[in-house]
Sequence to fold (71 residues):
Amino acid sequence: MIGLKDYPKPNLRFIRNVWVVEVSIPTSIRHLFGNGSGTTNNKRKATGTIDKAIAERRVTELTHKIYKEFD
Fold:
């Protein structure tokens, strides 16, 4: 069983003209995401903005949403 302290830190990336928050999926639960084969390595949530300052303010909120999906 994994907990919040075991989750990887988020990264902010610029993909397809929008900032996204990306978190690596822990290997022990990767089989639960994507097509189930365990090849999906990251979970992403779009910030909905091209402004980096606004995106940085949304990182914590979106990271917690991703962590809830992991739980």
Observations:
- The chain is about 25% helix and 25% strand.
- Residues 4-70 form one domain.
